[in-house]
Structures are given as C-alpha cells and as structure tokens.
Amino acid sequence: MVVHVSNTHLNLRPVVRVAAEAFDKRFLMFSSDRPGEEDSGSTWVVVTSNGVATERLTPHATYWPREAPQSLVWTDDSSSLLSVLD
C-alpha cells in the first residue's frame, strides 16, 4: 500500500507509521522535497509485508525519525485531527 501523507496542516506520517507497526508491516518513507524547500515536493509512505520490495526500496527511502507516541492509533471509533495538527 502506498499512502500520500503530504499535507500543510496535518502530520499524517505518525498515523500511518503506528498503523503499520500495529499490523506488523514494514514501512518506508519517500520524499521529493529538496533541502531548504520542504513545501515544494510530496511525501509518500510504502506499507508492505513484502521483504523483497522492502529490500529493493530501502536504499531510496528517506530517513524517518520516530515522531509520535505508540498510543496514536486511529480506528473507526477513535480518531482526532487535533492529534496530528502541525
């Protein structure tokens, strides 16, 4: 699955990362932003179980530091945009 997470007002990266971790999936972030021009490109997250795909994509991935507590899990019953406002 590939998720577009670029957004000027919402930081959706932690939501996707925590969901991937909850389902024991691998995740890689890709960004076309250029240094000093962070708002010019787009950011995508690949979520997969495929080890071969992960191995091939990893050299092209963007470094992704942990941004959110483990408790940030969105479900049908519980999701809050306030938790991801930038």
Task: Explain how this protein is built.
By secondary structure, the chain is α+β, with helices and mostly antiparallel strands. It has one domain. About 20% of the residues lie in helices and about 15% in strands. It is built from two helices and three strands; from the N terminus they run βαββα. A three-stranded antiparallel sheet has the order 1-3-2, sandwiched between helices. It is flat. The protein starts with a strand and ends in a 29-residue tail after the last helix.
Tell me the count of domains: 1
Report Rg.
13 Å
Poorly predicted regions are none
Q: Which geometry do the CA atoms define?
A: flat
Instruction: Give the tally of β-strands.
Output: 3
**Count, helices:** 2
Order of helices and strands: EHEEH
Query: How much of the sequence is in beta strands?
Result: 15-25%
Distance between the termini: 24 Å
Which class best fits the helix and strand makeup? alpha+beta
As a percent range, the share of helical residues equals 10-25%
Major β-sheet strand ordering? 1-3-2
Mean pLDDT: 82
> Major beta sheet, specifics?
3 strands, antiparallel
The oligomeric status of these chains comes to: single chain
